Amino acid sequence: MTIPTVPALVVPEVFSRWLESRGLIYQILVDFYGRKPSLSLVAQWRANRQMSIAAELTEGGRELKRYLCGQDPSELPQICEKEKAEYVRLMNERSASLFSAREAIQLGREQEFCNELSELYASAGVVFKKCSGEADDHISIELEFMAVMHERMLFNSFSVRSAMELLDIQVRFLEEHLLKWTPQFCSRLNAATSSPLYLGLSHMLEEFLPQDLQMLRAWRASLESSASTMA
User: Fold this and answer.
1) How far apart (Å, rounded) are the C-alpha atoms in residues 106 and 182?
2) End-to-end alpha carbon distance in the chain
3) Which residues lie closer than 8 Å to 203 by C-beta, 6 or more apart?
4) Which stretch of DSSP H or E encloses residue 178?
5) 115 pLDDT exceeds 80?
6) Which letter, b or e, does each residue of 184-197 get, where b requires 16 or more Cβ atoms within 10 Å of its Cβ?
7) For the purposes of burial, counting CB atoms within 10 Å of the CB of 47, is it exposed (0-12), middle (13-18) or buried (19 or more)?
8) Mean pLDDT throughout 19-30?
9) Beta carbons within 10 angstroms of residue 96's beta carbon
10) Where exactly are the transmembrane stretches of this chain (predicted)?
11) Per-residue CA distances from 58 to 10, 63, 183 (Å)
């Protein structure tokens, strides 16, 4: 009996740096869009060498790196208090302004839209533990979904086929959700704040997501080529 072989997952060098950094970029965005910028959070990222590497992939990341790593440690408590107040102002869901960190509100969709996202997450085997009752279409939850899918693709995939399945989920989520509303979100965030932290995060987000989609598509093409060669 012939046992069918499954092509092993091999990462070409051209994609290695992107794969090593993209999960960290998503985690940075989740951390700062999902909670107030505490002193411990800022100190954690200041000390993280991998953040410095990941930040270099975008100009917005370099802005964020200069701001977080360029401050005197004695000034950090005051800076964090200022940025906490800005987070509360920007992320206040009861605000009457057009600015919102939720897909449904940005695109004028019904609240029931969150149920569709909840079902999408569940179909991918993802259940979020929400500390602050975030809606399923909140920017931090959608970005965390991408971070979870990245980890599964990178660390729990041992074949081209399984990697491509997880890759396709991410491509569709970027195309059908994040990239449909984050350009407008970033534009409104840029107009709503003068904070170096949130401007850096906004610039990072609007630059990184299209770049990430392009790289996912390119890696998929590479995986398809590898699989056909081994067939």
Assistant:
1) 9
2) 18
3) 58, 59, 60, 63, 186, 190
4) none
5) yes
6) ebbebbeebbebbb
7) exposed
8) 93
9) 6
10) none
11) 26, 9, 16
From residue 178, alpha-carbon distances to 54, 57, 78, 137 in Å are 20, 19, 33, 10
Those residues whose C-beta lies under 8 Å from the C-beta of residue 60, and which sit 6 or more positions away, are 200, 201, 202, 203, 204, 205, 206, 207, 208
Enter the tokens of residue 183: 């350009």
Structure token pair of residue 150 = 């990245």
Closest by CA position to 134, among listed 12, 30, 210? 30
Amino acid identity for residue 131 in this structure? C
- For tokens 């660390």, name the residue: 155
Tokens of 120: 């999408």
In angstroms, the CA 182 to CA 102 distance is 9
| Closest listed residue to residue 17, CA positions, set 219, 193, 204 | 219
Structure tokens at 229: 């060669």
pTM reported for the whole predicted model = 0.89
